[in-house]
Amino acid sequence: MPSPNRDLMRYVGLATQFLIVIGISVFSGFKLDEWVNWRFPVWVWILPLLAIGAMIIGIIRDSSKK
Hints:
Elements: H1 4-36, H2 42-64
């Protein structure tokens, strides 16, 4: 039986990973929108959504192996 501290650290690591990936994808989207010079910030919306989707798929695949 896993200890509560081990589960807590697992979820803290997962939350930290989410925040870092979302931050990097928003920053990258912002820079890409500046480079493309469109009026509507498309990449600021698309990149974080793709990153969140990919992370959710990864979590589902990891949890289904157990």
